[in-house]
Amino acid sequence: MYSILKDYLKGKINFTDSQFEEIKHLFAAKTVSKGKVLLQAGEINQHSFFVVKGCLRSYVIDKEGKEHIIQFAPENWWISDLNSYNKQEPAMFFIDAIEDSEVLMNDRGFNEKIAAIVPQADAMFQTLTQNSFRAMQKRLVSHLSATAEERYLEFIKTYPTLALRVPQKMIASYIGVAPESLSRIRKAVAHQ
Amino acid sequence: MYSILKDYLKGKINFTDSQFEEIKHLFAAKTVSKGKVLLQAGEINQHSFFVVKGCLRSYVIDKEGKEHIIQFAPENWWISDLNSYNKQEPAMFFIDAIEDSEVLMNDRGFNEKIAAIVPQADAMFQTLTQNSFRAMQKRLVSHLSATAEERYLEFIKTYPTLALRVPQKMIASYIGVAPESLSRIRKAVAHQ
DNA sequence: CGAGCGCTTGATTGAGTTCAAAAATCGTGG
DNA sequence: CCACGATTTTTGAACTCAATCAAGCGCTCG
Question: What CATH code is assigned to A2-118?
Answer without folding.
Answer: 2.60.120.10
